[in-house]
Every structure is written in structure tokens, then in C-alpha cells.
Amino acid sequence: MAKPEFEFTPASSVEFTPCNPPIEGLSEAVLARDDSNDSVTRILKFEPGTDTSPNGVLAHDFWEEVFIFEGSFTDLRLNKTFKAGDWATRPPGMKHGPWLSESGAKMFEVRYYQNSGN
């Protein structure tokens, strides 16, 4: 099934749940998911003090587009801080993280797979 159809809906109506794998202080509000291919649209929330170091550096097999709309976090591998208004597009295999958010942050994220040849 494709992602569900929604007209404008308050983001506050979607509950934040722990991420998988769980990291203390990191949660997600899944706005839409396509269970047939695991494409996801979500809000990722970092509570103040969240450190994703236990997950190490990430790389995955899907595209990821992210936009920080609140707060900031530091990429510990790059030793660089990103803040509200910053965005990234990550193709499959791109390394990123881990992060530390001293004051907390929220990020809008879209994950999707692209068929080869498209």
C-alpha cells in the first residue's frame, strides 16, 4: 500500500515514539509510511543532551532528505554544528553522524528508495 492520503493535519496529532534502535532522548513521529517499500516521512526529535554515538556512523540503502526546523546538533565525525534552516540530501551509502544535541532539535525527514534506472 502506498503512503496514505491526508489533508492538512496538525503534526501535534502524531505521537512521538522511540526510534529503532532505541537511543536515549531520540524519538520519531511517523507522519506517513509505505509498508510495501518502507518509505517514511517523519519528524525526528532530539531531546536536550541526546547523543547518538551508540549508533556510530550511519550509512543506509535509501535516500534521505532532511530539514532542521528547530534547535541544533553537532555532527561528531565532522565536528560541525547544524541548526534550524539547514538541510541535507543523502544518497544511499553516504556516511553521516553520530550527533550530539546539547539544546535539542527537531528535523523533518523523508526516506525513500529509488528503482535503478529511474
Automatic annotation (TrEMBL):
InterPro entries: ChrR-like_cupin_dom (IPR025979), RmlC-like_jellyroll (IPR014710), RmlC_Cupin_sf (IPR011051). Residues 13-108 form the ChrR-like cupin domain. This is Cupin.
